[in-house]
Each structure stands twice: as C-alpha cells, then as structure tokens.
Design a protein that fits this description.
The complex is a heterodimer of chains A (166) and B (237).
Chain A (H helix, E strand, L loop, with lengths): L2 H20 L2 H18 L8 H18 L3 H17 L3 H4 L2 H11 L5 H12 L4 H8 L3 H23 L3
Helix pairs in contact in A: 1-2, 1-3, 2-3, 7-9
Chain B lengths: L2 H6 L1 H5 L5 H13 L1 H19 L7 H21 L3 H23 L16 H12 L1 H7 L4 E2 H18 L2 H16 L20 H12 L5 E2 L1 H12 L1
Antiparallel strand pairs in B: 1-2
The chains are: A mainly alpha (166), B mainly alpha (237).
Chain lengths: 166, 237
C-alpha cells in the first residue's frame, strides 16, 4: 500500500483517537502528522494492516505529550471547582442536563494519568477489546486491565457526588 | 472470594469483562452486599456516560489539509534524509577528525629526536648526541627544526650536572656550538640581529645558554639550532 493511501485510509480514526487523548484538534493534527512521519521513517516491512503500528506510534506519542504537559494540574483544579459547584447544589443531577454531565465526564478524563487515559479512551469510549488495545498499544493485557481498573475507579470516585444522587 | 477481593473485580464485572466463574461469584455476592451492588451501579453509570461522549466532528477540509501537510512534511523529511552510505561517510570523516585531533593532543609531534628530555642523561648518551650534532649533514637537516625550549633547558641542566661529575661536557657543548658556527652557519645567514640576550656572561657556556633560553622563553615556546648557535656566538664574542 502506498503512503498516501495509508494516510487516506487511517487519518480519520487516528485523528479521532488523538483528539480524545489530547482534547484539541490542532494538537491531534500535529500528533497524527508526527505518527505518519515516524511510521514512514521506521522502514519496517508491514505484511498486514499497518493500523496497529500507526496506532502504537500515535498513542505512545500522545502519552509522551501528555506526560510533558505541565498545565494538566491546572485543568484538574478547574474541574475540581466545577465538581464543588455541583456538590453545592441540592440536586445537581437534575440541575445539570445529561449533555453537560457527559461533557464533565469527558473533562474528568484529563485528570487521569496518561496510560490510564489511553486505555480508558480506547476501551470505554472507542470500544476496542482488551486484546485489540494490547495490539494497538503494545502493553501487556494484564497491564491494560490494571490501568483500566484504576482509571474506572478514579472516574467513579470523581463522579461519586453526582452518581449518589441518582 | 472475600468481599475485599471481590471489590477489585467490580469494574470488570460492570463492563462484563469477567470470566464465567468470576461473574457467578460476584453476582451471588452483590445479592447480599448492598455496598458492592451500589458500586457496580456506579461503575455502570460511569460506563454509560463514557459511551455517550460523542466523537468530535472532524471537518472534511481539516482531513484534506492534514493529508496535504503530512505529505509535504514527509517530502521535507525525504530531502533531509541521507542514504545510509552518506551517513557512514559522514561518521567516518567525523571519527577521523576526532582521532587526528586526539592524537595531536595526546602525542604531540616530537620536536627533535636528537635532544633527550629524559630525566637521566648519561655520558655515553651525551657523546652520542655530540657525534650526531657534529655531523654536518645531520646539522643541516635539523638546523631549522623547532625544539621546545622547556625540554632543551632540561637537557642543558642535565648536561650541567654531568659536567659537574665528569668535567667534560661543557667542553663538548662548546665544541658542538663551534662546529655548528663553523660548519653550518657560515653557509646560512644567521639571525643574530633578532636575538635577545639576557643573563650574566661570566659563567660557563652551558649556564649562560640556560639563562639566555629562559629569557627567550618569554617570547617563544620553541627555538631552532640556528638561533641557539647564534646565541652562543653572541654570548662568547
């Protein structure tokens, strides 16, 4: 498969993953471009579908990028404030529309650690199986299960003020 | 499984990722444990919210732009991407350069092999040195070779010590200098006018020579036999 065909075929799902990981279309675009360049430079002979390798490069790049983001903590603080506002309401679940709640859940994923975020997005948001995630990321399945459990546990903990009211 | 262990598997149970046995155990447990039942319910709610998060709409212009930019960036990378043999050639040249510089630093060019800079100069070595220097052909070959003044001073000091022990070396040195002046410097112009001489001249030729060389060391690190002979001529005249 020619390079431009590979780009044509996989750029959309890759942008979707990168966008969820980084939360920003422009950053996602840079990450996907970087992934394609690294893929082209790797000179590896791809026998089957190059999507796993492309995804692996992309996800590792996104994880590195998230690790470097020092302003992540700032976001965490703003989200905590949001939750405090929700806690102060008598019935926050009723006062917030379902769409807003979903937005809050999406925002809360920024507080997860990069690897936890990657597996949470791929499993619970994108719907990949654990074996597929293992192929896409290169992490062992047990590692994925542990990180997934921690991510879900954290999400439940952070959303508990809203969930209990349900 | 106990309650504590079961709690670790609740998230997997809520997402239906457990094995059949685990599923049955947890199902039986949550029938009796309200806390775990609530937790499972919470996990399921989180899962529902997570599934509802919509994918961000990606405009088709954005995708086209991305493809164009990616191909453009790859083209730029291709121009910068050197084939392996060019990289090897660069690496070879670089290593050669490093090696040459290191060799030059570690093992600087030996100035004149006739001058010994060892700590102990013996009389027979001195005689050998004198016989080399008294040979006209040898002298012509080395007359303009730079000699580090520091090592020359060390050699002259050793010669001075040898002279104190055996009493022949000073004469030998003077004979060499006369030989140079008589044989070689007659044929080549001497740089006497540019010689700067310092020190006292009431001592032996060797001591005067060391004093002169020390004063000359302020201006230069090396000296040639032509200069040395000129010095000597000036000192003795």
């Amino acid at each position: 498969m020619e390079l431009h065909q590979v780009i044509q075929k996989y750029q959309r799902p890759m942008v979707a993953i990168a966008c969820r990981m980084l939360g920003n279309l422009e950053e996602a675009k840079d990450a996907v471009q970087e992934a394609f360049i690294r893929f082209w430079k790797s000179d590896t002979q791809i026998k089957g579908d190059p999507f796993s390798l492309l995804c692996r490069i992309l996800i590792n790049h996104c994880i590195d990028k998230l690790r470097k983001q020092t302003f992540r903590r700032f976001f965490s603080i703003t989200e905590i404030k949001d939750l405090d506002i929700m806690k102060s309401n008598e019935n926050p679940h009723k006062s917030l529309e379902n769409k807003q709640l979903v937005d809050h859940v999406e925002k809360l994923t920024t507080r997860l650690k990069p690897v936890q975020k990657a597996v949470f997005i791929l499993r619970d948001m994108q719907g990949y199986s654990i074996q597929e995630i293992s192929d896409l990321t290169g992490f062992p399945e047990n590692n994925i299960r542990v990180n997934l459990h921690l991510a879900r546990k954290n999400m439940r903990k952070w959303l508990q003020p809203i969930l209990k009211e349900d | 499984m106990r309650h504590h262990n079961i709690r670790k598997h609740l998230s997997a149970y809520a997402h239906q990722e457990c094995s059949k046995d685990e599923h049955n155990i947890i199902e039986n447990h949550i029938k009796t444990c309200i806390k775990c039942a609530l937790t499972v319910n919470e996990y399921q709610q989180v899962a529902n919210f997570s599934k509802q998060i919509p994918e961000r709409s990606i405009p088709s212009e954005f995708i086209d732009q991305l493809k164009r930019d990616t191909l453009k960036n790859i083209e730029i990378s291709k121009q910068k991407h050197y084939p392996p043999f060019r990289r090897l050639a660069f690496a070879g040249i670089f290593l050669l350069l490093i090696g040459t510089v290191t060799l030059h630093i570690v093992n600087p060019k030996t100035p004149v092999e006739y001058i010994s800079s060892s700590d102990t100069l013996k009389l027979d070595e001195m005689e050998h040195l004198a016989s080399i220097l008294c040979n006209k052909e040898n002298l012509i070959a080395i007359i303009d070779q730079p000699i580090p003044i520091h090592s020359l001073i060390v050699t002259l000091k050793q010669m001075k010590k040898l002279n104190q022990r055996h009493g022949q070396v000073n004469n030998m040195f003077e004979r060499i200098m006369h030989q140079i002046n008589g044989n070689v410097l007659q044929e080549f112009p001497t740089p006497l006018s540019s010689c700067k001489i310092g020190g006292k001249f009431d001592e032996s030729g060797l001591t005067q020579m060391i004093t002169c060389l020390r004063s000359y060391q302020r201006y230069n690190d090396t000296i040639t036999f032509r200069y040395i002979a000129s010095y000597y001529q000036k000192i003795r005249s």
